[in-house]
Amino acid sequence: MRHLTLTVALSGLLGLGFYAYAAQQGPSPSTDKTAEKVADKPAAPPARPVAVETAVVRPVDLQDEASAVGTLKANESVVLRPETSGRVAQIGFRDGAVVAKGALLIAFDDAVQAAEVQQARANVAVARNNFKRSQELLSRQFVSPQALEAAAAALQVQEAALQVAQAKAARMRLLAPFRGVVGLRDVSVGDYVKEGETLINIEDIATLRVDFKLPETRLPQLRPGQKVELSSDALPGRTLSARVEASDPQVDVAARALAVRARLDNPAGLLRPGMFVRVRVLFGERSGVLMVPEAAIIPGQQPSVLKVVDGKAQPAKLRLGLRRDALVEVVEGLAAGDVVVTAGQLKLRPGMPVKAVGEGVPAPAKGDAKAAG
């Protein structure tokens, strides 16, 4: 029995060893079938390109300028008010008329003031005669030098009184301080006007001032005589030329902006003070400026675009500059000839294949940017 048991055990071990050897030497039939199924399965097709619109980054010649809104002001402007109360006796102008410097605009009843002037003149004449008489008597030694000094002082007092009376009389006449256009009056002959009441305004509109503000970053480029172009809704299609006259020495702390004033000739009187104008300050022309459509810019903490590299979308971070007519200046991040996606960015992820269905950059506006090549 012991020999039989040992024989059976050895036979079983040999059988197990042979089975293990056979399993290692070749795959089982089921394994072969699985491998055949995997081999027969077709490979997954590649991802289809996403159709997007693109534009080519091209260098252009760009007019460097700054835009602002401005307000027109008269070269000289004043509102006339009487320095004393009185009744209007004469009006020497027509509403909206051009008047010369020194022209009589409004005269008040000055009968009392005229009488005071006559009285003062008579007193001056008496004082002057007394002074001459004192000089003659002193030459004959009939009076003392002190008497002559008293007569001279009396003459000076009367002459001063005459000047006061004449000044009071002059206040009864309002004269044009400069050549200009008078406004619309609200008084008539016979009206009683109080001291300081507004009567009429006069404006010198042959030359106008344009006040506007520019960012403080433009200060190094700003200088007197800078060319300024103006446009107004009142004159559609027309561009007017002005020149920078001066800038405020202090920057507005709240807006970080610099107040600038330009001067504009207005001989025909087409523009009026108080009108709104659009201002373009021209600083010169820059060549080789890279521009891309605004539609290509992906907003964020740092602007970026998706550019096409070897048929795939790749992100590129940018540093931007001026914006002009739906175009944006690229200061850093792109090179001439790069192709950027302008429509369809929402469908893309970095590395996805793309297919351009429209390629080209919008033409710059005439006079603003012209293609360099």
Low-confidence stretches: 29-39, 360-373
The CATH topology label of the largest domain is conserved putative lor/sdh protein from methanococcus maripaludis s2 fold
Rg is 47 Å
Order of helices and strands: HHEEEEEHHEEEEEEEEEEEEEEE
- What helical percentage do the residues reach? 10-25%
The CATH class of the largest domain is Mainly Beta
User: Between the first and last Cα atoms, what is the distance in angstroms?
Assistant: 106 Å
Average pLDDT reading: 83
Shape: rod-shaped
Number of DSSP helical runs: 4
Task: Count the domains.
Answer: 4
Number of distinct beta strands? 20
Q: Please identify, by name, the CATH architecture of the largest domain.
A: Beta Barrel
Structural class, by secondary structure, is alpha+beta
The proportion of strand residues reads 35-45%
Structural notes for this entry:
This protein has helices at residues 2-25, 29-40, 111-139, 145-170, and strands at residues 50-56, 58-80, 86-91, 98-99, 104-108, 173-175, 180-182, 192-193, 200-215, 227-231, 240-247, 257-265, 276-293, 304-309, 312-317, 319-324, 327-332, 339-343, 354-359, 369-371. It is of the alpha+beta class. The strands form four sheets. A six-stranded antiparallel β-barrel has the order 2-9-12-11-10-13. It has a four-stranded antiparallel beta sheet with strand order 6-5-3-8, with no helix packed on it. A three-stranded mixed beta sheet has the order 18-1-19, with no helix packed on it. α3 runs antiparallel to α4. The chain is rod-shaped and about 185 Å long. The N and C termini lie far apart (106 Å).
